[in-house]
UniProtKB/TrEMBL annotation:
PROSITE patterns: PROKAR_LIPOPROTEIN. InterPro entries: ABC_Gly_betaine_transp_sub-bd (IPR007210). GO terms for molecular function: transmembrane transporter activity. This is Glycine/betaine ABC transporter substrate-binding protein. It comes from Streptomyces triticirhizae. Residues 45-291 form the ABC-type glycine betaine transport system substrate-binding domain. One of its GO terms (cellular component) is ATP-binding cassette (ABC) transporter complex. It holds the Pfam family OpuAC.
Length: 302
């Protein structure tokens, strides 16, 4: 017989009451089947694309925890890169993309509008913004550095570089540097963790550093950062969710939950900080957040 989580009883009793009759029918029918067939069929895992940044890991942690604990659906997290995620989603290698920053509009048009193998699943509830950032203490001492027109005056102090994270991230930095005539070169730190370490060290010491970075990010709760005023290369955008089209048609209550899943920057940062800042496992971080936010969770199951 299907397991009914005690937490679901607390969060969405009206949903369960509406389904008790159906559950009774399922149970009665199951009693007429040979014992070895009851519950023998295992559910296929839901495959969630997870890109290499804390916000994406926080999304996947909470969604995976609730799918497994509340809906009894296994989950497989598939590590990917933004450039590869669309092809994987369209092919069904993954079924869920929880956080798209709109950095690959050609891929969105190809898979959503032309091929139709990916469908939109609504907004994540968070607005994302990418930009160039300077540690707050250095920016306070040299406020003119926050105007892009003055960056060449600080190029030597900045090491002639703008520091990025993973070389696989989609950025416009090379184009910006070329169009604005800046004496800078994009340099990859190698990973987001490496970028975060360098920003944290520079922020703690008050040393100059120019970094490609984004909000929301849990590091902003630990280190003061100031944003360089650039032309509108990196607008603030609502982050969006996408699903494999076939999965969206057949996913039933799982798809209903995924479409309903929406939370705030504060929520995401809280889970991301537990994982990246405090070293909790994604599952432990998700469990703690879920226990602390029952009303938010309940709304996703209505």
């Amino acid at each position: 017989m299907p397991r009914i989580s005690p937490r679901i009883r607390r969060l969405a009793p009206h949903r369960l009451l509406a389904g008790l009759g159906a559950l009774g029918l399922v149970f009665s029918s199951a009693c007429d089947l040979p014992g070895e067939l009851v519950g023998a069929e295992e559910r296929e895992p839901v495959r969630i694309a997870v890109t290499d940044w804390p916000g994406a890991r926080a999304n996947a942690a909470v969604v995976a925890y609730l799918l497994e604990e509340e809906l009894g659906v296994p989950v497989e997290k598939v590590e990917t890169e933004p450039a590869a995620s669309w092809a994987e989603l369209g092919a069904g290698d993954t079924q869920v993309l929880l956080e798209d920053w709109g950095g690959l509009p050609d891929q969105t048009r190809l898979h959503v509008e032309q091929r139709g193998d990916v469908v939109a699943a609504g907004e994540l509830g968070i607005s994302g913004h990418v930009g160039w950032f300077i540690p707050g203490e250095f920016a306070e001492a040299h406020p003119e550095v926050l105007n892009w027109r003055n960056l060449n005056d600080f190029a030597e102090q900045l090491g002639g570089r703008i520091l990025q994270a993973d070389p696989g991230f989609a950025t416009r930095d090379a184009t910006i540097i070329d169009e604005l005539g800046l004496d800078l070169t994009p340099v990859a730190a190698g990973s987001e963790d490496a970028l975060v370490d360098e920003i944290h060290q520079a922020g703690s010491r008050g040393t100059p550093l120019l970094a490609y970075f984004w909000q929301p990010h849990w590091l902003a709760t630990k280190v003061e950062l100031a944003e360089v005023e650039l032309p509108d290369y990196y607008p603030t955008i609502p982050l969006r969710k996408y699903l494999n089209a076939e999965f969206a048609e057949e996913g039933g209550e799982v798809v209903d939950f995924l479409r309903a899943f929406s939370w705030s920057e504060r929520d995401q940062n809280a889970v991301a900080e537990l994982i990246a800042g405090q070293g909790l496992t994604p599952r432990a971080a998700a469990e703690r957040w879920v226990e602390d936010n029952p009303d938010t969770v309940a709304a996703w199951f209505n």
